[in-house]
Design a protein that fits this description.
444 residues; 14 helices; 29% helix; alpha/beta; 4-stranded antiparallel sheet; 6-stranded mixed sheet; globular; single chain
Length: 444
């Protein structure tokens, strides 16, 4: 019997109404494009261009500098204006390559060359994915070519296409599944070439009936590929949650999905694999949602990597007229990053700008009380942790208990506990701080 959900979780207002039925529009940036060198998990890429160099769209401008790293590809043609530190979404300075866009988008040699995936070796497939600079486009940003090289590929039983898109407001994956289902299925079949004993499973929440129908149609007659519709519940799209539903396995701290026979990638990542392998197209653009009650024209855009957030807001008509915006979020309200301003570039793993007329954090701060010991946070934790006890340990900086007794480092920072807390305690923020301090101590 197929599983439909996982342990715990919450049901926040999904906010999908703003942009769910708005088809993709292609947006071509007007200003400079800024390419961060650390827009992936692992070691930052190493620049291979310098100020004054001419670059083409699809050209590698920074190379992976280590096993867990990823190439950075220019998404436009033009001249390198600078190689310098710039502010990114996190609010910190990061090394970046700034390209003055000439507006022509002249492609590098070889981009667009057609290939037949079935004639390629496993090594060739992995190399094409690496050359394309593909990382996880669902938010984590793990280099995809590394995921495709587990220690024992014959032990992989499920290649999971994550189309859950459980984060409120974001709808770009929904639109992608509606408009490019054949490319997603083709990408999934390429991945299955690497894992001969696996089946492909496309997981979609039930609040996306159009995407489910489109993907089921694309899967018809494709053999080892199927759609698994699941209950709408946050954080259904979390890697551990989705593995629990599809494989019935619990991913423990320190384990990789491959350790329980799974490979998980976002549907946009899988489409990018198809384009890299079969069309020689590096990762130059991605789907992006601009949404919220503070946006004049909520929309789904296909944007070039490196485009400024300010430009995509302008493409959505700017702020809603007659409303006062209180919150800017990169991503969605549950796991997104609050932004101080929009003068920062879109990186590969950024999928949305959410603009709100009310700041839920500010509202919660005014209502905050002492812990009521109601236990709701424990009930909704998808990992079965005890946030109530973790909070006490974190506040007292008893990090040995936090880590060793309460397994606090297992926390995925989904925010379910913070959302459900009637005392409005900032639990997720507290856990993020505790984890950062523990990891910093370990490095020392």
């Amino acid at each position: 019997m197929l599983r439909k959900t996982f342990h715990g979780g919450v049901h926040p207002a999904d906010g999908k109404k703003f942009a769910r039925d708005i088809p993709f529009q292609t947006y071509l940036p007007k200003g400079d494009l800024i390419f961060a060198l650390n827009q992936h998990i692992g070691k930052p890429a190493k620049p291979v261009v310098q100020k004054g160099d001419t670059v083409l769209a699809g050209q590698i401008i920074a190379e992976a500098d280590g096993f867990v790293s990823a190439h950075v590809v220019s998404s436009c043609s033009g001249k390198v204006k600078a190689v310098e530190s710039r502010t990114t979404v996190a609010g910190t300075l990061s090394p970046c390559i700034v390209v003055e866009n000439d507006g022509n988008y002249t492609l590098a040699e070889g981009v667009g060359t057609q290939r037949e995936a079935s004639s390629l070796s496993n090594q060739e497939i992995v190399e094409f994915v690496k050359a394309a600079g593909i990382i996880g486009l669902g938010g984590a940003g793990f280099p995809t070519h590394v995921k495709l090289m587990p220690k024992n590929p014959e032990e992989i039983r499920y290649v999971i296409a994550n189309g859950a898109e459980c984060e409120p407001y974001i709808t770009c994956d929904d639109q992608l599944m509606r408009t490019a289902p054949e490319e997603i299925v083709a990408g999934l079949k390429i991945m299955l070439q690497l894992f001969p004993n696996a089946e492909g499973v496309i997981v979609i929440e039930e609040n996306k009936p159009e995407a489910i129908a489109a993907m089921e149609k694309a899967c018809a007659g494709q053999g080892k590929v199927r759609v698994q519709a699941v209950h709408t519940k946050y954080p259904q799209g979390g890697e551990r949650s989705i593995i629990s539903v599809v494989a019935g396995k619990h991913l423990k701290l320190g384990m990789l999905p491959a350790d329980v026979g799974c490979v998980v990638d976002n549907v946009a990542t899988i489409q990018a694999i198809y384009r890299a392998v079969c069309k020689s197209e590096p990762l130059m653009e991605r789907g992006f949602t601009v949404s919220g009650d503070g946006v004049k024209n909520p929309c789904n855009l296909m944007v070039k990597i490196g485009t400024g957030f300010a430009e995509v807001l302008e493409a959505a008509g700017g702020f809603a007229e007659g409303k006062e915006v209180q919150k800017l979020i990169c991503g969605g309200p549950m796991m997104g990053i609050a932004m101080a301003g929009l003068d920062v570039p879109i990186c590969k793993n950024n999928n949305a700008l959410t603009v709100l007329c009310e700041d839920p954090v500010a509202v919660a701060e005014k209502q905050q009380t002492a812990c009521l010991r109601c236990g709701r946070c424990n009930q909704v934790c998808p990992l079965g942790l005890t946030p109530q006890m973790m909070a006490v340990a974190a506040e007292r900086k008893n990090y040995e208990r936090y880590e060793k007794k309460l397994y606090g480092l297992e926390c995925i920072a989904c925010g379910s506990c913070t959302y459900i807390c009637p005392a409005k305690r900032p639990l997720m923020q507290l856990f993020k701080q505790a984890k950062a301090e523990i990891m910093a101590a370990k490095k020392k």
